[in-house]
Known about the structure:
Number of helices: 4
Strand content: 25-35%
Structural class: alpha+beta
Oligomer: single chain
Number of domains: 1
Amino acid sequence: MKLRPATPDDLPALADAFRATFNAAPWNEAWTDDSARAALSDLLATPRSAALVAWDGDLCVGAVLGRDQVRDTHLSHEVQEMFVRPERQRGGVGGALLDAHLNAVQAREITNVSLLTARESAAEAFYGRFGFRRAGRMVLLVRP
């Protein structure tokens, strides 16, 4: 497996891995190739974005995409998407991706990192192993 920064040329392979991940259980979403490409293209074009892709030969097996955000006195970082093909999960791909991504964030001297995931899920447990915890003061509000 090889990790490298994502480029716009990776978009077709990223979209394929993204759909394979999020259209499967437990997410059971309904991403199309067009909607996945649009979402990932937007993330790659976001100012201060950072994206890392895991490759096994010419197959994209996963990726992590995030962005730095300007705050009043510092930068923070939000992991916006992370995915690993279902058949490659629990094999070290996600851990390698997240570890490398967080090391790159830390190298930019950013210490505040956040992300959203499903409560009481395998994903929450995974992120917990990397030091993530539920925010004490924050709540996600949705409408309607």
